[in-house]
Amino acid sequence: MTEGFKTPERWNVEKRENLKWKTPIPGLGHSSPVIWGNRIFVTTAVNEKGDADLKVGLYGDIGAANDSGKQRWLLICADKATGKILWQRTAHEGIPAIKRHTKATHANSTPATDGQHVVCLFGSEGLFCFDAEGRLLWQKDLGHLDSGYYIVPEAQWGFGSSPIIHKNLVIVQCDVQGPSRLTGAARKSWSTDTSTSAATICARGRNFGKCAVAATSLCRRPSRHTA
């Protein structure tokens, strides 16, 4: 929200009412776009056959979507003023390690940026860090991240926890079937087992905080784990 500007009360894409620009993004992604300066970063997963289905709405079904074909996991950078795609990078390509729910996608996690780094989490496909120009700086395999229905373990729903950046750490809550953990990636990596079932991770205090918190039962000071 910006002071001094009237906030629109309604939008209409078809009539282009209060719409500055529109840019098509391939594939499916529940991740939110993030903005830094004049750039927008967004992730998506593209089925190579182009037949990925998304079934939203109110219904009860614990089954997985029929979307286990070869995918490309993308990070896309667009110009905030015009919507023009500045660059697109493929972080990973292959068969998904985990199935997704019919309401979910293979790109559920929102990326994080500090203006110099853009961090993307694609669940079992890995954690990826790019610079602002789209150069891959590093990637980490976080293992098999199956965060499906705990009552019916074979019901795989896809991964949804998003990373955060704290100083030189990238922090991720890996809330999965079996031992869950809080993981930080830097020059060295560390992880802490936790039985939390929380879906998010937050940092509190000055400059993102003195502690990273997963649920109410776990608190770790990131500075004690930096390299």
Structure report:
0% of the residues lie in helices and 35% in strands. The protein has 227 residues and is mostly beta strands. The protein has 2 domains: 20-162, Beta Barrel (Thrombin, subunit H), CATH 2.40.10.480; 163-227, no CATH class. A 4-stranded antiparallel sheet has the order 1-2-3-4, with no helix packed on it. A 4-stranded antiparallel sheet has the order 5-6-7-8, with no helix packed on it. Strands 9-10-11-12 form a 4-stranded antiparallel sheet, with no helix packed on it. The radius of gyration is 18 Å and the shape is globular. The model is unreliable at 187-219 (pLDDT under 50).
